[in-house]
């Protein structure tokens, strides 16, 4: 069976994404077994950093979606942490909690890339849902225009993922800086914090790479059919 070079690149990106996911879980579990010297929980760390930043109105709640479901909700102004992070005293718990607070700080300061990401979200949501159906319909009905519309919509979803990269990297940097500045971790604990956050960032890089390659492939098919 002959594979197009672009297909090989997409499979390679998929492999990277799967490896990154396992790396996230592995590093989280590894550093979940190492207690932070501050003995603070993820929830306490999140609340402490938020208060130091003057974000008293931002709430810290338990997430109801399970492990690694931690996120910041900009509409509700709420940091939601999974149980292992919310009540955990580990390096992993502090890293994840501080990262999500990093997003709250970005929101407070109207961080440019986060603002762009929020504005792209509706377009990305529609594009990711409709584009696959338009591609299928375009191929089955041999209607090139439908494929073209699908490419435009999918481009919005890809752009959203590209913009997400600097948002996530910046939140991780803010997390590490705040943990050190406020004395919540010691310098020897910075390695564990970095491993947890870097593994998570790699998943975004892999998924973005795969989306970009898929978009390029669809554009090549579109141009070939024209």
UniProtKB/TrEMBL annotation:
Keywords in alphabetical order: Membrane, Transmembrane, Transmembrane helix
Transmembrane regions: 120-141, 146-167, 201-222
Keyword S-adenosyl-L-methionine among record annotations: no
Pfam families, A to Z: Zn_peptidase_2
PANTHER family associated with the record: MEMBRANE PROTEASE YUGP-RELATED
Protein name as annotated: BH0997 protein
Species name: Halalkalibacterium halodurans (strain ATCC BAA-125 / DSM 18197 / FERM 7344 / JCM 9153 / C-125)
